[in-house]
Amino acid sequence: MRIGxxxxxxxxxxxxxxxxxxxxxxxxxxxxxxxxxxxxxxxDNSIVRTFTEVITFGGDGLVLHIANKVAPFGIGMLRVNFxxxxxxxxxxxxxxxxxxxxxxxxxxxxxERVRMQxxxxxxxxxxxxxxxxxxxxxxxxxxxxxxxxxxGITSTVFLRLIVVGKxxxxxxxxxxxxxxxxxTGSTGxxxxxxxxxxxxxxxFAVTASNGLFSYKAPMPNSKLVNENSFVLExxxxxxxxxxxxxxxxxxxxxxxxxxxxxxxKFKLLEGDVVLIERSPQSTIFLEREREAEKxxxx
Length: 298
Prior knowledge:
Blueprint: E1 2-7, H1 12-25, E2 31-36, H2 37-41, H3 45-48, E3 53-58, H4 60-70, E4 76-81, E5 91-92, H5 96-104, E6 108-122, E7 125-127, E8 132-134, E9 137-144, E10 147-151, E11 157-164, E12 169-175, E13 177-181, H6 189-192, E14 204-209, E15 212-214, E16 222-226, E17 229-232, E18 242-250, E19 257-260, E20 264-267, E21 273-288, H7 289-292
């Protein structure tokens, strides 16, 4: 085992406990390294990929940042809670050492969390029959665990959404933008904006931020939660499933963005299309055996 320990440098107690765990593990595993969050995020990937597991000491923000850093390498994460809510953490600070023993004894299992990918294409043509995009150039590609957001930060944007699956359909929205949420991220920005909590990876939530959806025809394989949110009940894990998001109009002073997990972002122009689909990467969380069963991809 080569374990990386990452702590929130703004929380003294998190750093203190991280160092105590470091001292404990040095006698039991091959190698342990301790990093403040900002230092770990700047590590070269040639170093990151050598870790077999990472243990985080912080809140959900720290978990997201580290999950996005290690996702390409399939590194399992144990997450100690030092946040206010801790939706993404799974060990409380007062139970670290007993749970550390359980971890070393093999009582934790790897659980795959589905991720999303947003690809920005510029200068494309949408085939209205086949619901495909042709031409254009890829300008950016962002990966996320929780959610992808397309829209403005301080202004109104008009979006066209084409859901492409076994049965395709189209909706439009006017507002701040649209949130595309995975099962993992459904308790975050999506929930705050009025979206539903998801309990399976087969479904996918789409929520308008300060706006409403308009649609002229029935939305197959979907369930309308309220006026600003619907759930795609099938398709997300299927090959070829994607959502085409086109910026049809924007206010000139404030450009819209594609934002991944409220962190990485790319500025969009009118006419740009964002392809939202399942990412080829996954996040690996280490869960107690009883929790692992709940988080199998269903």
